[in-house]
Amino acid sequence: MPFQDPYQQAKLAGASEVRSDSAPEASPDFFHKLPMRTILPFINGGIAGIIATTLVQPIDMIKVRLQLSGEASKSGFTTSPISVFRDITSTGKLIDLYTGISAGILRQAVYTTARLGLFDTTVGFLTVKASEQHRSINFKERASAGLMAGGFAAMLGNPADLALIRMQSDSLKPIHERQNHRHALSALKDIARSEGLVALWAGATPTVARAMALNFGQLTFFYEAKHILKDAGLTSQSQTVGALAIAGFFASFFSLPFDFVKTRLQKQVSNEDGKLPYKSMSDCFEKVAREEGILSFYRGFSTYYGRIAPHAIWLEVCRSNVSIDENSTYRITFQPFFQDNIR
């Protein structure tokens, strides 16, 4: 039996219209062919991720600085979002809030492309399978898809994530220790040359754990929350905004400790003795908990949540309005993304 992609199967399975035999059959074009239809979810996920990240990059910059504030406090580094904002822009350059944007874009091109592409594709297959069993896809299946997609994508995107952290934290170092990376590729090249190729996957364990926790909270709870809010009779707009807010909270709560440790591990470099401050994820957890307190893992929660929720909203806006589909090479539409159907 020839292979069919899940979206075409779902479309055929759920079709309620019967096509007339006399209706002309459209000839398949490039976007109707299986290989292209298979990678469309990945392309659209990457496009949406890049746009969303560009819009929220300043918040991410502040979040990273807050997470490193425990290490930098001895040198007088400030620890509130407002004071961090002032510190970054003290030279009068708002563009400094976009430090590391090239690495952020590269990360989205790899991580979000894989994350959303794998999630959408996996959910598509599971939806078809569930439909054949005359049921709807359940929470466990969505959660499994989210965990798998997040973990695999995070491993692929770790080098870009590492470059982003290094670029965002560079100005915290003494002037003579700064690397002054020009862009993401320059940072990756410098890290690989000075620390070895394997160093590009520094902090990969908490990065994968963070991504799995983030996907579990964000992608899984979004659909579940939207179903609940829809059953409660809320309007379409309220359903989407409410579901994104709820999913963003759970995503932030589950993933922030791992994000905190990831930032610390990826920022660290060997000292004069050739030793790293933290040996592993567990060592970082232990030392931070002992020296800075358990609650330090949730330092900057409001900023982190303030980054996660807007990013999720812009991601949905972009996925709904800027994408490539099987009927056209490219489309930009401006219809409301708040749809009555649960996407």
TrEMBL record:
Question: Which Gene Ontology BP terms does the record give?
Answer: transmembrane transport
InterPro entries (UniProt xref): MCP, MCP_dom_sf, MCP_transmembrane, Mito_Metabolite_Transporter
The domain of life for this entry's organism is Eukaryota
Gene Ontology CC: mitochondrial inner membrane
Q: Which key words are in the record?
A: Membrane, Mitochondrion, Mitochondrion inner membrane, Repeat, Transmembrane, Transmembrane helix, Transport
Q: Name the residues that span the membrane.
A: 241-261
Q: Where are the Solcar repeats?
A: 36-125, 137-228, 235-325
Query: Record's Pfam families?
Result: Mito_carr
| Location within or outside the cell | Mitochondrion inner membrane
**Topological relation to the membrane, as annotated:** Multi-pass membrane protein
The entry assigns this protein to a family as follows: Belongs to the mitochondrial carrier (TC 2.A.29) family.
What is the official name of this protein in its record?
Bgt-1129
UniProt organism field: Blumeria graminis f. sp. tritici
